[in-house]
Amino acid sequence: MADQSNNQITDATQQNAESTNKKQEVVKAKKENKNIDYKHQKEDFELGKLLGGGSYAKVVEGKVTNPNSPFFNSEFAVKIMDKRHIVKNDKVKYVNIEKKVFLLTNPHPFVCHMHFAFQDNYSLCTFFFFFSFYMFYYYYYFELLL
User: Which of 29-33, 43-47, 79-83, 106-110 has the weakest average pLDDT?
Assistant: First the structure.
């Protein structure tokens, strides 16, 4: 009886060790394949039509064209802010607050998700999930009304 319980404990310990090793391998593979530490640049994107504009920024469609990016072929709404205008009109504080708010509300289902941000010499760029009219209509009609 004692031998049987010892064998069960040994088997359980081995299975636990094997599953832990498999999980570590999966995490390592995901990190290698997903390029989690990938730094985006303006050259990684193809910018499309203008979606809207404001006092110190404009929003355009953007598509990731770099195959090394984990978001390859994904579409985003790209907010492009002019650095010179932000500094000139003393809006740096508000831009930082906006970025913090989007980062804090990222897991919330009813707030637009900011995927990443970067800057170049002239502008700040933030990338949000692009929700087209047709996607909205489909979601509204089939998910909420039915």
Answer: 29-33
> Pick the residue with more confidence: 70 or 5?
70
Numbered residues of the known binding site for ATP = 79
Q: Is the dihedral of CA 94, 95, 97, 101 positive or negative?
A: positive
CA atoms within 13 A on the CB side of 96: 5
Q: Same domain for 25 and 49? A: no
107 assigned to some structural domain = yes
Is the domain of 50 the same as that of 69? Answer: yes
Give the annotated binding-site residues: 79
* Structural domains counted in the chain: 2
Tokens for 70, please give them: 């984990």
